């Protein structure tokens, strides 16, 4: 549903239909709803394009993808048997002559040794590496939501500043008309000098507000260049494309409507990338327990050696060559202070990882509840501005204008009334901006963004 808002100027109608997808309020007119929906849709589409462009060139996503792939490759290496060792040498060489054909014990040996890991250690190490790589891969999604939220926050702020600028310009135009009116009345003696001076002062104040507004817009544009690149500054995209301070949050609203509990959002938060990283950490620690348990199994080694002899034996015949084969095995007998402690330490790490996830979920659930509270309060305040404050402000301006024309109100009252309405218009826009920024934070936590982006490239590419 949409909330509609009409803000009226001092003597002209300044209408701007503002829609926020937060609650059900009857629409004012079909034409206004259609125009507003189109504006929100176009603003949301343009923002999503900026987010997708920023993410496609984001080096942090590629960094996490490269780190994840590096862990997977290391896992393959860790799941491979150790390389066999080649042993070459001689034995039984007489030191008085150093001849190989003098003593039958003298031989030239070539051997091969191979060590095997304990039990299923190799397979478990690869599984652990893949689980750790999965955790790093989820960092890509964390980064995506972080960038999307930051850009959305700045985009909404820029839209608010642009709207505030338009309101200030319109009121400045009206104030200049009042200045001309006061100048005419002063020249014919119908008004005092203070009326003209007050009007001129208000024009100067509006000029100062415009300068301050442009300064803040330039700052926001510069901040957006962190993700959109320096070309964003050179292109000055915001000069030709108006930003918006309200967006379409259909996906977020759908997620919230599916909630059966208004204070516990753990089902949605379990799908959050940070929670998935915690799950991957728990799985990796559980695998480490299995790795530690493999230390109770023996470790085997195998060695084969061939000895070539040149001397003759005692019978005058050539001594035969020798072949040796050995099987080695360590026996884990004293496990109290090594194997048992390693397994216990690994089990404690599993518990620590589970506690870490519970803490994370509790923190994020508290953040969601705080944001939902802000969402409700901002919605109520927006309704108050739309249903009471702005209509009362318009009625006040009309009454003061009639009083001034009938010489029952001071000219300063007209200026005060118009200034108050300007403040109300900007305050309402500020509330709507805050509401949308709150929705952006909720979307970051619950997955309410609608951008589409492909997986990052893990291979490093030189920038042109």
TrEMBL record:
Pfam families: OEP. The keyword Transmembrane does not apply. InterPro entries: MdtP/NodT-like, OMP_efflux. Residues 361-388 form a coiled coil. It comes from the Bacteria. One of its GO terms (molecular function) is efflux transmembrane transporter activity. Keywords: Coiled coil. Belongs to the outer membrane factor (OMF) (TC 1.B.17) family. PANTHER family: OUTER MEMBRANE CATION EFFLUX PROTEIN, OUTER MEMBRANE PROTEIN-RELATED. This is TolC family protein. It comes from Vibrio agarilyticus. The lineage of its organism: Bacteria, Pseudomonadati, Pseudomonadota, Gammaproteobacteria, Vibrionales.
